[in-house]
Amino acid sequence: MGFATGAVSGPARSIRLLLGTGYESVIDHGHWWSPLTSVFFVDNGAELLLALAGALIVLGFAERLMGTRRTAIAFLVTATFGAFIGIGAQYLGVAGGEMWSREVSELWAIDPFTPIFGSAMAASYFAGPLWRRRIRVLGLSTVLVLALYSGQPSDLYRLLAALVGLGIGWRGRPTPRVSGWRRSSDHETRTLLAAIVGMVAVGPVITIFSGARFGLLAPLGLLLTQDVPTAGEVVDRCLLGDVTRQCVQELSLERIGGAGPVLVSLIPLLTLVVAAFGLARGRRFAAWLAITINTGLALLAGWYFGLLPISGQPYVWQWQSGRYWEVTFILGVSVLVPLLVAVTILANLRHFPVASRTGQQRRFLLVTFGSLIGLAAAYVGLGWLLQTHFQPAVTLLDLIADVPERFIPVGFLRLERVSFLPIDSVAAALYDSVGAMFWIVVFVGAIVCLRSVVTGSTADASERLRSVLNTFGGGSLGYMTTWTGNSLWFTASGRTAIAYRVVNGIAITTSEPIGPRSEAAEAVAFFARMCDDNGWVPIFYSVHESWQAVFASMGWPTMQVGEETLLRPSSWSTTGKKWQDIRSSINRADRAGVRALWTSYPVLSLAVTTQIAEISEQWVQEKELPELGFTLGGLDELRDPAVRLMLAVDSADRVHAVTSWLPTYRDGAIVGWTLDFMRRRPDSINGVMEFLIAQTAQRMQERPEIEFLSLSVAPLAPSSDTRQGGIATGLLQYLGRTLEPVYGFRSLLAFKSKFQPEFAPVFMAYPDPVALPEIGLALVRAYLPSLSVREVVTLVRGLGQ
C-alpha cells in the first residue's frame, strides 16, 4: 500500500481524509472504518522502510510465538481498539474543554506501528521469561517516550494498543508451564529504572524530530534543545501567572550559534544515557550520577518556568485565568518528572550494590569540581584580558555573574537578558568552549568510573577453596579452580565454591560448582544472581552431564563444548587388536631405554626443570598463536606440590616428554587423576605420549583407591555424532574450526581415542541464547588472553584455511 500510494511523499490528501483516522475522521465525518484502514499506510519513504522492517521482524516473531490466527486477531483488535479508545478519550476531552484534545482534534493519523506494538505485547505472553521481559520493557518504554514527548494522537493510540495487546495476551496465554530461570527482582528493578532514565535522556530527541509537540513532557524536551519557542508559547507561559518580569523580555537568539552551545545541550543527555547503562548493570556510581543530573534538570526547569523563587525576581503567584490550569499542570509535570526519577533512584539505592574501585569516585569528584573551578577561573581571567573583545566591554563583575550560564544548556537561558556578546573569533571561542570542555570531562570521567568495578576474592579464599576440594572433590576438572587468574565465590555456608573469570562482561566458570550436591541448585542460582548484580552474563563451562537436570529446572539451555575421555585403572588392559598402537609405543620406549618417572616439580633438579621449560618453549614456538590458558595449564601450574608429573627420561637423564596430572579428592583422599600438561621434544621417539599415559594407567592399577584417570577434555571438539542445531552448532563449529589449524583440538580427541576410553560429554550452560556471540568472543579471549592484533589476523587466516 505504501508503494502504491507514494513511497516517498506518502498517500494523497484524498486517501488520508478517507482512510486516515482521528477525532474529526470518526466523530465529525463518521469514518468508523478508519481505525483499521489507517494502519496500512505511511507518511513517507523512511517510515515505509521502518514499517516494513517492523512488520517482517516483529510480526514475524509474534507469529512464530503464538501462531498465525492469534497474530491476525491481535493485529486487528489492537489496531481497532487502540484508536477507538483514544478517540473516545479525545471526545470526552473536547466536550469538557480539555486543551490537548482540542489542540489535536484536527490531526489525522495513519500509523502501521499501532498494531505492530499491540501484537508484540500480546506475543510477550507466549515468549520465555527473558524475551517476555525484553518485549514489554522495550515496547512500553518506546510508546511512553513517544506519548510523553511527542503527544500526537497516533502516539496515544499506540500506547493504548500496547495495553490492549497485553490484555489479549493475558486472555489467550498458554497453559502455565515451567517458566525457567527468572532473574532476580533486583535486576528487574534496575532494568526498569534504567529504562526510565533512558527515556528522560532520549525524550528530548523525540521532541526535536517530532512534527508536533503536544506531549506532557514536551516543554522539558524543548529546554534541552536549541529550539527557539514561538512568541505564542512565551505568551501562554506568561499567562500562567505574573511569576517573573522576564516573561516579557526579548528572546536571546544570539546564544544559540556555534558548536559549544550544541555540546553543552547534548552532552548532559549523553551522560544520562551512560548512567542508564550503568544502572542496568547495578553500578552505584551510575545511580548517584542519574540522581544528580535529574535533580539539576528539575531545579533548572523550575527556575526557567518561574515555579521556584530563585530567579532574582519577587516571587508572587497571581492567577490570571483559570483556563490555563492545564498549562500549569504540564509545566509542573515537566519539573516533577526528573525530580521524581531522582527520588525514585535514591529510594532504590540498595538495588545498585556494585561499587567502583577504591578512590575512583573521589577521583571523579575531584576532577569534576577541579575542572569546573579551573574553567570558570580561566573564563573570568581570560575574559578580563579580552574585555574589549566583547560588546559592550565587560567588567570583572559581569564575567563572574555570567559564569553559571556558560555551563547551562542554552534552552534554560532563552528568557535571560543578554549582558554582552563576543565580537570576534577569539572571544567567541572562550565564550562557547568552557562549558563544552566541562561536560566532556564529566562524560569521559563517568565512563571511566563506571568501568572500574570492585571485584576479586578475599585473602583466605585459596585456603578455603582447597579445603572444599579436599572434602568434596569437585569432579575430574575441579582442581583447575585453584589456578591463578580465577576469581572465587562461596555460598553463605562456605561449603560450595565456584571459580570464574570475567571476560568482556561474561562470567565463565571453571568447571562445575565444588561442594555438596544438596547445595547445587541453590549455589547456581545465587551465583547467577551475584553475576546479575554485577552486570555479567553467567556461563557454566565444562560441566558434566549429571548437572544438566539442575540447569534444565532453571530453564537454561545447554550445549556440548567438548568430550572428556576417562580410563578405569581397575579394568585397564592393553590386550587385543585395538591396543596395537599402545603396545608398540611401550615396546619402542623400552628399546630406546626410555623410562617413566612419576614425580612432582618441587623435588626435581634444576637440570630437569630447565629441560621441561625448554620443551615447553619449543612447543609454544611451533604455534602461530600464544599458549592457551583458562582450562589448559602451563608451566606455572606444574609447580603446585599437589600436582604429579609423569616424565619420559632416558639413561642420560634427558627428558623426552612430560605430562602433568591433577588430583581429585574425596573426603581428603585422592580418588582420581586428570591429565593436563603434555609436551614433547620434537626429536623424541614416536609414541612417547602414548607410552607415558599407558605407564600412568598401569601405575594407578596398583592403587585400588584410584577410581579413574581422566585424559581431560578436548575443548571445542565434541564427537562427530553430536546433534545440535542453530546458533549453538554455529558457535561451536566456528571456534573449533578457527583454533583447529593451530591447536588441533579434534586431533587431540582422536589421539585420546586410542586408549578406548569412556566418552563423557561436557557442556556449557547459559541463561540467554542472544548472548551466544558475546560468549564465543569471551571464550576466545579466555583461552587466548594475550592475543595481539597480528595474531588475530593469523586466527582469521586459520579459519579461512
Automatic annotation (TrEMBL):
Any idea which UniProt keywords this protein has? Cell membrane, Membrane, Transmembrane, Transmembrane helix
InterPro entries recorded: LPG_synthase_C, PG_lysyltransferase, Rhomboid-like_sf
The question of whether Transmembrane helix is a record keyword is answered with yes
Topology of the protein relative to the lipid bilayer: Multi-pass membrane protein
Q: Where in the cell is it found?
A: Cell membrane
> Transmembrane residues, as ranges?
39-61, 73-95, 107-127, 192-212, 259-280, 287-307, 327-352, 364-386, 436-454
Where along the sequence do coiled-coil regions lie?
none
Question: Where is this protein primarily located?
Answer: membrane
Residue ranges annotated for the Phosphatidylglycerol lysyltransferase C-terminal domain, each copy included: 469-766
| Annotated Gene Ontology cellular component terms | plasma membrane
What's an example Gene Ontology biological process for this entry? Answer: phospholipid homeostasis
Q: Does the keyword Mitochondrion apply?
A: no
Question: Which is an annotated GO molecular function term of this record?
Answer: aminoacyltransferase activity
Protein name per the record: DUF2156 domain-containing protein
Query: What organism is recorded for this protein?
Result: Cryobacterium serini
Lineage, broadest ranks:
Bacteria, Bacillati, Actinomycetota, Actinomycetes, Micrococcales
